[in-house]
Amino acid sequence: MLGSVRSTASFELKKWFWKGETMDFGISSRLAILCVAGALGQPAFAGPLAIDQLSAGEAQDLAANEAFMPGATHIPAREEFNGTLVLSAGEMQMRPELEAREVMGLDAGMFPGVELEFFTHEGDLVPTTQDVITPPADIANNSFWQILVQPGLVWSEEDDDGWTRASFPFALMNRLEQDTHNGIATFAFREGEVTPVRYQIVQQTAPYYVAEHFKAWGALEAVFEPAEGGTYDAARDAYQAELANRLETRTWGELPAEAVEGFEGDTSDDWVVMHALVKDDVIYYQDSQTEEGPFPFPTRMRFGVWSITKSVGPGVGMLRLAEKFGDWVFELKLLDYLDIDPPHAGWEGVTFGNALSMATGLGGTTFDANPNDFYADYTFEGTYDDWYRARSEAEKTEWLNEVGNYPWGPGLVARYRDRDMYALGVAMNNFLKFMEGEDADIWNMIADEVFAPIGIHHAPMGRTFEGDDAAGQPIMAWGWYPTLDDMAKLARLLHNRGEHEGEQILHRERTEAVFSIEGTLDQGPANALRDGNPRYKMGFHYVPFAPEEGSEVIWLPFMSGYVGNRVVLAPNGMTAIRISKAWPAPEEEAAAVEEPTSMIDAMNRLRPFAVD
């Protein structure tokens, strides 16, 4: 069935150049990919999806990713697309099928009905928001999923009988979790008609409740609602500024092969979604490989990075609060900003700084701390899942009353605990409201006062579900959905000790402390890396690195997310990034992806670290 569409014509000639990543779909490239696809068992590429297939809503199986992209003889888009695409919900074809489609009372096998608003700009299809989109309940059809949408393309094919095509990357996710299921969607539109939207999901980060690593595909009925008198001028200006601020990107092959050989160490390619290295403000990235071919929009992908968020929401957030109000914010007491009534005295005296360093003294799993096991409490047992599944801030915060207590008190032993970081996030939010009014929001502060000045234009975050369409409490223990560009820019700000173009955004002394192991706490031999035990402080992990056998150990801070997601800050100003999906995985392979030292070796070979 074809829906209504209204758009104006545009015939601006434009070579397909994806703003920093050139992708050549010439005949030689197509033949090369065809050969590789055949050798690897990937779907063979036979050109873009036929317009008849799109119009009929046919989606019998996964296709080569390039079938969703412009063909060798594509021409500029015949029409513009400005308005809202309303997708009907539809059951996904999945491989493997989910063992249980019902998750938290919702249907994980259902692609949600959703409203997506776009405008076109110089051949790009641009969504009006890159935040988390929560589908309206009346069209979501009880789907488990929310959605993220990134900019794509519009173009025409010569033999399409006047149709214009569109393609865009997206990710399904759930606000209470953080795995992203990355896919591509395409459709065509012409003079009052729009085809069904063909999609396929071909990549993902590590899951939790939906444990299967699945692929999915299908076609969704769609209706186009044109913008009423809207010109999108302000949105186009903002998008143009966003493109101008983007860091340069180059392919992995442009790095010296001998220097980056072994970057992933013993990590199997099966568990790597993508990796990158940032050197002199250039992002060198390895394509995100899938069985259907490289993901077509590599630098536009948003990733569910899980606990990397702890370094960003609580970590960078506290550095910003310290710069705004003073270093004393680290000494604020959690109980002064939490609405809880715990049955023990363990919360008394716990400061924001204690929680940020995972040293609250709360918990109650393993009372032996000599030697310590940093992850002793990370068992997902007891009331953890009750807290995890709780949908509202009030429900989630109430479950904090069930947290146990250790006898040693705050500040002495580090134990990794999601609930402590969530509690800190709630307390930070309530403190900011006390200082600036009820409309203040801690994540919006980070987005507006930290991200925006350094060129991060979007800040999607997982939040609790509240009534009356309230935004919800940012989860903060996880929930940030960055691109490679976002992570590289934030790392640059930290390398520059919180300063950007002469403005001190983050508290300088506290940011300098991120690069020192003074005050760090031992994670214990159970978590040993190649060159010794890691340590923890202020939302960051610390890895020991010995450039040569017997040499002095250098400590590097890094952000860590489940399972194997890494952002490593090197003393030579470089940053290494790995996005992983290593759960569920064999124990040895999961251990390999947790090890960041091979990435550090590569950065040291590229530019040897100076030792004071």
Please give a structural write-up.
Helix 6 (308-325) runs parallel beside helix 10 (418-436) and helix 6 (308-325) crosses helix 11. With 612 residues, the chain is an alpha+beta fold. Helix content is 23%, strand content 21%. The strands form five sheets. Strands 1, 3, 7, 8, 9, 10, 11, 12, 13, 14, 15 and 16 form a twelve-stranded antiparallel β-sheet that branches. It has 15 helices and 27 strands.
For the largest beta-sheet, the strand count, sense and barrel status come to:
12 strands, antiparallel
The number of helical elements comes to 15
Helix content: 10-25%
Strand content: 15-25%
Rg to the nearest angstrom? 24 Å
Shape category: globular
* Low-confidence runs of at least 5 consecutive residues: 1-40
| Protein structure class | alpha+beta
Mean pLDDT: 92
Count of strand segments: 27
Give the terminus-to-terminus CA distance: 69 Å
Task: Produce the secondary structure layout.
Blueprint: H1 27-40, H2 51-56, E1 83-87, E2 90-91, E3 93-95, E4 102-103, E5 106-107, E6 110-111, E7 114-121, E8 124-127, H3 137-140, E9 146-149, E10 152-155, E11 164-173, E12 181-190, E13 193-194, E14 197-204, E15 215-220, E16 222-226, H4 233-245, E17 248-251, H5 257-260, E18 272-279, E19 282-285, H6 308-325, H7 352-356, H8 384-389, H9 393-398, H10 418-436, H11 442-451, H12 484-495, E20 499-500, E21 503-504, H13 508-514, E22 521-522, E23 535-537, E24 540-545, E25 554-561, E26 565-569, E27 575-580, H14 587-594, H15 597-606
Parallel strand pairs: 17-19
Antiparallel strand pairs: 1-7, 1-16, 2-6, 3-15, 4-5, 7-8, 8-10, 9-11, 10-11, 11-12, 12-13, 12-14, 14-15, 18-19, 18-27, 20-21, 22-23, 23-24, 24-25, 25-26, 26-27
